[in-house]
Amino acid sequence: MRRPVLLVIAHGSRDPRHAATVHDLVRRVRSLRPGLRVETGFLDFNIPSVKGVLESLDAEGVRDVVALPLLLTRAFHAKSDIPAVLAEAPPRLRIRQAEVLGPSPLLLSALERRLYEAGLTPADKSSTGVVLASAGSSDPEAIAVIAEIAREWRHTGWCAVRPAFASAALPRTEQAVRELRDLGCARVAVAPYVLAPGFLPDRIARGAAGADVLADVLGAAPEVARVALERYDAARVPVLAVVGA
Question: Does residue 83 lie in a domain region?
């Protein structure tokens, strides 16, 4: 039985680094699951559009698609934008929307990978405070998830972990950095909880000016690709049940 196509849905950006990073991540997903067809569609700014990819798949005779939101929290795009686009897909396509990537223990591992790549070591954890810096959202559910991830991450041995937001919510990155300084952490690191470079990640970087370490975005970290496949596998089961009915 043919596996459903995995359609990775990214937001898109005027910043060319965004699309380049998304494509790098999709290539890693393909490398982890040879034989799985993985397509990429963007909601805005970049091509191909989600609508265009779905129309092309329909024209080819594809019937089953798992749509994966390339998002870290369930906020407006996952709850509204993406379902609206998928609802306009050709009627012959059977589409199941997968869950967003976060939260996941694998994403915490990816965050630590980026911090170690930026110069920290596991021996630094107990004396280092970390700012978990996300893009931000007006959705209370998304904000609560970020706060819970920070609490969970703190218990893995860091001096302290504080959430911060580049937009729509407080505190900002620079405020969280000062908070950790005041708390007495020997060093402060900023871990961007974002997938690709762009306007808000750049704001996070500017807010990290007072920190000792600034990690890179999650990007094409292998852990992120593994989460993407986990979400695909969880979503495809109902699709296969329908096909085999």
Answer: yes
